[in-house]
Amino acid sequence: MTDLKFPPRGSFAWQTLVGPYTPDPAALLDPSPIFGLERENTAVYGCMRSASGEIYEALRAIRGTDHEGPEYAEAFGGFLLRSTAGHNDPFMHVMPVSGKAASSKHPDGKLENGGAVWSSQQNAEGSPWQVTCDGKTCRWHEENVLDLQGHLIEPGLQWYMPERSLGMYYASLLYEVTGTILEEEVRGFIGIDQIYMPDGGVLYRHKDTLVGQKVHSLWYTWGTRYKDGTLDAGHFIVGHGRSGFALLTNEHGEPYYTNNITARINTRKDESGQEWQDHIILNVDGVDWEFLPDPRGTMPDGSHQATTPQCEGRWRRVGDEREPDVWFAWGEIAPDHGLEYQPRFRS
């Protein structure tokens, strides 16, 4: 299909619709499909840093659907904590506490005091957990491991990539948080994002538009609070065909979004030959942004790191001299999809 002059009927070459939305806690619990897509996952994730300079990358994946079959057997639904703590190498490693937390299967979800609440089942094996989100504030608690509270970076940010029988809808809430991880005080950002996919879809594994169609070359969610109080945050996706966008907000909650984005992705290889993101330049409506990888930010323990290597770091406009105070940029590149733009279909 890559040599077609135009895309086939029902396809728009991964053209992506992007924009802001008003958060609604009740909608977070509503199981209804959106654009005919089912909620596959509620991902609670983010990056926090301690005063001593350690990085903690946490993820709680709350599966929206439970399917049987070998293609779903490895679908992640639980808690994962990576950190630089206890290591001198340039990587973040999965910490043992990850396997001791209760799973996210069949979570108790309810609307309470105006907020959406997800929690582990009362008799679930492992350490209990709870996530609360009222739209403006959030709390994420993993017993004996993590306790974070924060406020929303307004507004909600959403994108929709239609594609024939596939497609993906993504609704994101970003929060600036403080708290503790393993009794160490931390600051950072988390996202509470809901991913909608076709019936039976599993992120990264089955009926995934970005991975299955090899659409994207870069995907990042990020935020930076500067010492002068200003803020930049949002999402970048760069890919092939008509895919790709910048979906951003600032300290005033003023959204900015465009599909006019291109990338120059430079990579490096480690001793094993694994390819990692290095300095990256994005051109967004004529403005250059750059990715600065954290020297200790690579994540070698991901189940899909060989094809979509993930690395923590920081985004900024080229030449921006503001001093960062707290930041995160969790994302990936996809060398197997091609890091140089491919039109795929006529633009």
Q: Assign an overall shape.
A: globular
Ends apart, CA distance between termini:
15 Å
Sketch the topology as an H/E string, one letter per element.
EHEEEEEEEEEEEHEEEEEEEEE
The helix content is under 10%
Structural class: mainly beta
Mean pLDDT: 92
Number of helices: 2
Number of domains: 1
Low-confidence stretches: none
Strand content: over 45%
Number of strands: 21
Largest sheet: 12 strands, antiparallel
Q: What is the rounded Rg?
A: 19 Å
* Quaternary organisation: single chain
How is the topology of this model organized?
Blueprint lengths: L16 E5 L3 H5 L8 E13 L4 E9 L15 E5 L9 E2 L13 E5 L2 E5 L9 E5 L3 E6 L3 E16 L6 E14 L2 E14 L11 H4 L3 E11 L4 E9 L5 E6 L5 E3 L2 E9 L5 E10 L2 E12 L11 E8 L6 E10 L14
Antiparallel strand pairs: 1-10, 2-3, 2-12, 3-4, 4-5, 6-7, 7-8, 8-9, 9-10, 10-11, 11-12, 13-14, 13-21, 14-15, 15-16, 17-18, 18-19, 19-20, 20-21
Report on the structure:
It is a single chain. The two termini are 15 Å apart. Strand 20 and strand 21 (324-333) form a beta hairpin. The chain has 347 residues and is mainly beta. Strands 1, 2, 3, 4, 5, 6, 7, 8, 9, 10, 11 and 12 form a twelve-stranded antiparallel sheet that branches. A nine-stranded antiparallel sheet has the order 16-15-14-13-21-20-19-18-17, with no helix packed on it. It is globular. It is built from two helices and 21 strands. The chain has one domain (17-337).
Summarize the structure.
This protein is mostly beta strands. It is built from two helices and 21 strands. It has one domain (17-337).
